Amino acid sequence: MMIELAREDYYKALPLLDQVKINTMFAGVVLRQHIPGHVYVDTRENPRAFYVAHPYRMSLLFGDSGDDSFTHGLYDYITNQSAARQQMEWLQADPAGEWSGVIDSMLTSHNDSLENRGLSPEDLENKKIQRNTRVNFSFDRDTYLDAKRNFPRHEEPVVNLTKELFYAQSGSVVPRFFWRDAEHFAEKGVGYSLLSEGEVASSSFSAFLTASQLEIGIETADTHRGKGYATSVCSALIDYCLERNLEPVWACRLENKGSFNLAQKLGFRPSVTLPYYRLPV
After folding, report:
1. Is-contact 200 168, C-beta < 8 A?
2. Residues near 99 by Cβ (< 8 Å), separated by ≥ 6?
3. Between 185 and which of 44, 179, 238, 278 could a Cys-Cys bridge form, CB atoms 3.0 to 4.6 Å apart?
């Protein structure tokens, strides 16, 4: 079974997390208790397998894959056998380990079992585990600075994303999903918003932030897409990083062509790809 780890023991996961060679910033903020989440392990005393769930429906699996009880609990969790999860979740696993092969086997078993339940095509698709691709990028400063000369210019102002604007951006990738509240963001975070006729049209913000790295979150309201606003607010945030010797970090689904293409426009280059599993409710 998967055992939930007490928060005072989250530190036990950090040495192994440091060995995972992909972008793990979302898991790090949970383990360092900057954001409340859930951590599941194979054993409380000396855990070797870890499942870290961020409240933004993202999770990371890493560590030893040899514990059968934990693996059985993992199957129940990702297939939601006991309806423990109330929302879908995006799972990635340490590509250096064996977990992706384990999950692929679970995916096949679960999805095949659904075929015989007489579900409608829509319900069948919703209940399947779906395998997507996660892309990590590396940032090329020179490429960005060269591209920046040709970025679009807008009359609309780009302003600091203050706590007064914290809840103003519409969409699914917005600050309130990554920070405890507006006060927390104002104290620890940073971001920029482009205003169009007084409305927040696009925002770029620190989804995760450490002493050396800043992972970029970006959202543009539906009615303002296709105008180059995302480029402007992301450029403002990248400039902030460069002025403070922070590494800008970008990651997204390969299937999210808007984010994938914007990253490359801003000087990011794909560096790592790995399976990214959509877990059903």
Report:
1. yes
2. 61, 62, 65, 93
3. 179
